[in-house]
């Protein structure tokens, strides 16, 4: 099957061809015809499967088929994303595929001045790609009118819920017209996603290109057992011995990302850190340098798990396992994209054994364990509780507020990652959201 069989217009096919694509991916094959039929969609797809084009192309097609009203442009399509990086990525896709169509789009998110965004909106745009917090800021300032929206797309909806955006999403839904087409894309499915989709979607078509909550077969996964105090030494060893040129490394906390980046620089390995406390300019620069190869290692908290799109990123390293099992899927999904092979390495100490078991239960497979010679774990070292901090929207970018993250107790090394989702968690998330609402990380 080629893109020409999907009912797309000549301007879109020309833009696709210029990107070097000839055959649609499985998610694109399924999603594009259904979206063009004006049905609501609930889609589950592994990251890196081409889902952004899967909704961007039919969206642009439908906008071009329905002539807008004369006069000032109205916002006809709204795409919500959880992070700034992902919003920028989707915005680039809209620009790339819509280059031969007469549409205006803009990307809005926090962490940067709001004034240029207001100016752009006043000029009139057809498509808005936004993070929820800044979007509501602009609505509150009457700089953005959402009453003419015909298409709503929630991209990485599971991550938006993880990051405490559910209240913002409900506020946005209350503003939008009742008659519209809704598309919900999620890399993982959960009870929360099902509840959101039940209230949002009207008789949706369900699209799944792989079993839920699974990792890509293109990604080779391996665990290296190691003592907690020797992780940095082992990471440097692997990078130098393997001559790894481009490595994305995940830590749990902002402080941990900064510290590891500094240590790698001292080891002679160029690196940069990216997390929620970094300014947007610093985050953009670090990501650009990483993509260009002037920085060898990018150390990130989970804020980067959904916003980094590099087709041939060869290596992802979990310097620390995530507290939430699903985050493992999103992290390692940064490699093995667009049909390329990749390697996901996890450095696991005794403290993280329960986290690893939770991940293996989620993905329904055991990850291969390989002990590196010279870095064998000391069996006399006892597990210690893992300290986790509240993340929220203004935290490390990782997602749920602290109450939703599973935490170890005094008697076990770590509670199971899927535990701890209760009423106290919801209250904690609400309080965290209130604290973070003015931090500009939206």
Could you please describe the fold and organization of this structure?
The protein is globular. The chain has 442 residues and is an alpha/beta fold. Strand 3, helix 5 and strand 4 form a beta-alpha-beta unit. It has 15 helices and 14 strands. The chain has a seven-stranded parallel beta sheet, sandwiched between helices. Helix 3 (51-65) crosses helix 4 (84-97) and helix 13 (325-332) crosses helix 14 (353-363). Residues 389-442 have low confidence and may be disordered. 37% of the residues lie in helices and 14% in strands. The chain has two domains: 3-208, P-loop containing nucleotide triphosphate hydrolases (Rossmann fold), CATH 3.40.50.300; 219-436, P-loop containing nucleotide triphosphate hydrolases (Rossmann fold, 3-Layer(aba) Sandwich), CATH 3.40.50. The chain has helices at residues 10-18, 26-36, 51-65, 84-97, 115-123, 132-140, 157-162, 166-175, 191-200, 231-242, 254-266, 280-292, 325-332, 353-363, 423-436; strands at 41-44, 77-80, 105-108, 127-130, 151-154, 181-186, 205-208, 219-225, 247-250, 271-274, 297-300, 315-318, 342-348, 368-369. The protein starts with 9 loop residues before the first helix and ends in a 6-residue tail after the last helix.
CATH-derived topology of the largest domain = Rossmann fold
The chain-level structural class is alpha/beta
| Quaternary structure of the protein | single chain
Number of strands: 14
Descriptors:
single chain; alpha/beta; Rossmann fold; 7-stranded parallel beta sheet; globular
């Amino acid at each position: 099957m080629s893109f020409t069989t999907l009912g797309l217009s000549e301007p879109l096919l020309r833009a696709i061809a210029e990107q070097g694509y000839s055959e649609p991916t499985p998610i694109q094959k399924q999603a594009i015809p259904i979206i063009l039929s004006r049905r609501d969609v609930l889609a589950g797809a592994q990251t890196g499967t081409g889902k952004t084009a899967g909704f961007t192309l039919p969206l642009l097609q439908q906008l071009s088929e329905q002539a807008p009203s004369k006069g000032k442009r109205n916002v006809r399509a709204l795409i919500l994303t959880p992070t700034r990086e992902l919003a920028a990525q989707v915005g680039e896709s809209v620009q790339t595929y819509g280059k031969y169509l007469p549409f205006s789009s803009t990307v809005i998110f926090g962490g940067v001045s709001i004034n240029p965004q207001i100016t752009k909106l006043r000029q009139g745009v057809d498509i808005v790609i936004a993070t929820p917090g800044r979007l509501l800021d602009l609505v509150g300032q009457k700089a953005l009118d959402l009453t003419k929206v015909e298409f709503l797309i929630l991209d990485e909806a599971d991550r938006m819920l993880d990051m405490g955006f559910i209240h913002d999403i409900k506020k946005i839904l209350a503003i939008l017209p009742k008659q519209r087409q809704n598309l919900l894309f999620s890399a993982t499915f959960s009870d929360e996603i099902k509840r959101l989709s039940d209230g949002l979607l009207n008789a949706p078509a369900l699209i799944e290109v792989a079993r839920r909550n699974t990792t890509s077969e293109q990604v080779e996964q391996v665990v290296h057992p190691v003592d907690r105090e020797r992780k940095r030494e082992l990471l440097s060893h692997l990078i130098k011995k393997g001559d790894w040129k481009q490595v994305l490394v995940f830590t749990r906390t902002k402080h941990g990302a900064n510290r590891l980046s500094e240590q790698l620089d001292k080891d002679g390995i160029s690196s940069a850190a990216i997390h929620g406390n970094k300014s947007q300019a610093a985050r953009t620069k670090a990501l650009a340098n990483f993509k260009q190869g002037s920085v060898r290692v990018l150390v990130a908290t989970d804020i980067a798990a959904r916003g980094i799109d590099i087709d041939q990123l060869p290596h992802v390293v979990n310097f620390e396992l995530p507290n939430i099992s699903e985050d493992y899927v999103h992290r390692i999904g940064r490699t093995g994209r667009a049909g390329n092979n990749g390697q996901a390495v996890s450095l696991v100490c005794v403290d993280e054994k329960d986290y690893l078991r939770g991940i293996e239960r989620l993905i329904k497979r055991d990850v291969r364990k390989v002990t590196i010679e010279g870095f064998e774990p000391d069996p006399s070292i006892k597990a210690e509780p893992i300290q986790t901090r509240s993340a929220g929207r203004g935290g490390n970018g990782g997602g749920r507020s602290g109450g939703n993250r599973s935490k170890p107790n005094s008697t076990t090394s770590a509670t199971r990652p899927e535990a701890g989702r209760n009423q106290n968690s919801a209250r904690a998330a609400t309080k965290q959201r209130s604290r973070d609402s003015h931090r500009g990380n939206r």
